[in-house]
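Ticket closed. Logging final result for Pimeloyl-ACP methyl ester carboxylesterase.
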Amino acid sequence: MRVEGRAGTGLNVVDFGGDGPGILLLHGLTGRAANWTATARWLTRYGRVVGYDARGHGHSDKPDGPYDRPAYVGDAVAVIDALGLAPVLVVGHSMGGLTAWQLAGARPDLVRGVVIADINPVTPPDLVDRWRHWLAGWPVPFPTVADVRDFFGAERRTEGESFVEVMAGAPDGWRPLARPEHLLASLTHWAGRDHRPELAAVRCPALVVAGEQSDQPVDRQREMAALLPDGRFALVPDAGHVLHYDNPAGWRAAVEPFVAALTPARAPA
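Final structure:
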């Protein structure tokens, strides 16, 4: 399914199924909607679950720009409006979490709740440089899928699995669906900023979920939950940054009670 986002950008939308209230899934930088497949399976108990590949990611259009925050938030609004999902529960991981709270702050009429998964609200000033160095070190093309798993899963195997899903195969190997220049352009608009003042505008119920072993500071995320007007915090044990891959059961245990409180289950487990 395609939806036209901000500035005419075509977005690849995945309808995971379910009936009733809308639930919108927003992936992180480098990701795509498919990263949410396991989570979507149990979320369909609570409503219609939809995800989409962000601009420059997955199978969505990859324009030269814009990749600023208004573009990302505008794309979410376009999907919500096109599919009639409002008032929607938004679940966002990392960059998707940033989009989730900015969407809730800018358009409270569209959002009934947010789940913000593993992002530091105070982004380091050297973030773009660190990513530029990291991206330059990717041995593209990867000869095989196993090489993708080994490269990205050197420290945590599940992170390798998440990167397998954002690669495309060709006769000479495997390449990322997102282009480095677009990833860096996206980072430029949220690196080196203190986003904590934005949180006061989020009036709906909000859940901040952190991975116990994440490189995103847990204390900052706990503080974020305290700054949200109707915020709460959950910690997923034995999980790093990609917490819904690292500990799927722990992730579900942290998120499902919040979802259930907003939307009673409509289907059996």
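The chain has a mean pLDDT of 96. No further action required.
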